[in-house]
Amino acid sequence: MTSEIPAEALEFIDGPNFATVATIQPDGSPQLSVVWVTREGQDVVFSTTRGRRKELNLEADNRCTLLISDPANPYSYVEIRGTTTMTEEGGRELIDALAKKYLDKDRYPWDDGTDNVRVVVRVTPTRVVFLQPR
Amino acid sequence: MTSEIPAEALEFIDGPNFATVATIQPDGSPQLSVVWVTREGQDVVFSTTRGRRKELNLEADNRCTLLISDPANPYSYVEIRGTTTMTEEGGRELIDALAKKYLDKDRYPWDDGTDNVRVVVRVTPTRVVFLQPR
Question: Under a CB-based contact definition with an 8 Å cutoff, are residues B44 and B123 in contact?
Fold first, then answer.
């Protein structure tokens, strides 16, 4: 039990691998979605838009849990529980950087309209569980 | 917004695909792990052992959320929120059936000892979100 992400698990985040992110619904139940991720040191960073369900949930309760698997072995994964901060600053730059990482495109191609306000979500780990294969 | 799992998403469950499951920690934060799944009709069924974190969490709060992706397209996934029931009955048969499905082995090979009490967790969907690619 630690709040440090081990080096092997940082590699899962550094590759173009998808994370499942859990936020807390108003009724206390977990909400899950899939996100692109990057990191700054030990903080895991992902993008959302203002008003989306997980953004609303994080406004109300900033706790968040991420799970990301080893692309080479689905029996190995890291669970990262943490607290989040959100900012619109750098929101467009982040989603474009993620589009580069995951799609090899210079700009994110899938915005529904021009009025999406992009939000940077930064998760600071408070507890990390790393499951390695037997 | 529905509580019905659509036919395409049932196929994700029927294939040997991994699900991420979220339960609720005593402090209200989400706990995530990866599980093998099968189903009976619209109910999603997975295995755990007595005393494991997610089993303890589900004893205290029986709400659970699962996410499973399309193996052919990671941008398509189904999020299933539901309520769970647990029983020891059929626990051994279930884990062996899952070992057959995922490992093509007749018996589950990874029990740490003979004293693991296997529990069947059955999730009845209350809300289903199906994300399909653009």
Answer: yes
